[in-house]
Amino acid sequence: MFIGRERELKALNKLYGSSKFEFAVIYGRRRIGKTELIKQFLGDKKAIYFMGIESNAKLNLENFSKNILEFNTGIRADTSFSNFQAALEYVFQLAENERIILAIDEYPYVARSSKSLASTLQLLIDKYKDTSKLMLILCGSSMSYMEDHVLSYKAPLYGRRTAQIKLLPFDFEETCRYLANMSGEDKALMYGAVGGTPQYLLQVSDKLSVEENIKNTYLNPISFLYEEPTNLLKQEVREPAIYTAIITAIATGASRMADISTKVGEDTSVCTTYIKNLISLGIVQKETPYGEKASRKTIYSIADNMFRFWYRFVLENNSIIARGAGDLAYKRIEPYFTDYMGKVFEDISTQYLWELLVTGKSPIEFTSLGRWWGNDPRTRSQTEIDIMGEQDKNSALFAECKWTNEKIDLGVLETLVQRSELFAYKNVHLFLFAKSGFTKGCIDKAAELGNVTLVTYADILKSM
To answer: Which domain holds residue 284?
Structure first.
């Protein structure tokens, strides 16, 4: 079942419709659905699809040659081109009179085995771009390779691409489409546990409860997800042990560099390098208080829900899970699930605010959203705001998110009002996001203030 990716498919089809040479780069983390996106786009179009393998140039060239010749003759021949330049030039020439797509999947495998491939492509693009109707797609899972050797201004192919797509995990709305048969609350819980990576969602059944799904995946020693984070790290980095220690430190509460360094037992300079790589992989994110570009208040958090859940709950219970005690492991996890969901609900609420903006329904036309934390001089204590976004120097929104079974009361609204007054904005709009609704006192006060929007989780689901 293929879901989502409407914007990406629309962009690719627009390129296809131009009838001139196009060169699209598609990249993103493993399991994110790049290959499925390409296959969905290709459909019944005239296309040569080739997936590189982690082997030498000879074998990749032989496979590439077979794909080309089968496309042109309909016969799976054993004949091989003499080199990649001859093979590629043949394809460029085929496309001089008709629209043809050449999609090279896992391009880094091919390029690493044939060091001159990028320069060869550069040469042929420059030679045929004005006469060929080829649509070239290069796709890769190695984020660093694609960014450094394809997209970077130092790369031979720089300036040749006509489009690039960095494929990201599904957002909450797209994830809910896959989890169609689950209750509203269970959709949020599964999004919090698995995230929006398509390959991970495939391990989940929307006909089972959250508890059953977690037991079948994370708490099952033979499941795909049981060792997925460590397997993924082994594919992407050279020293997975240190990366594991850093991710574990962050997932279990260490957010500042000094705290992470202490927990891991490595110098901050060492941790900084590893964290930078984790950020490029989309596993860790760096945050500063909203509006502060460079700050000593910088914190780090896990960006990917699957990694966050696994390192928060699975790793520490690994010994009993390996012994088949999934029920016991779940009993240990369950009491902390609501607290864990707090950050997930902030993410869902942030996505809701962005949707209001793009549909013209936001009372504040903000340019970005983020968390804020800092000192409250009135109380001389640290305080924080879940979400804020600025339109200009005079206008901003502030939001508080609560994933609890109790209704949000008046005190939460009053606290948000007080925190918004730490800033000098004249036009302020407040949002309260609640899993379970609001007390009458809170509703009445919001109506009295006139600049407050109360949003329940049910409202978010209805808006999708």
So the answer is: 172-341
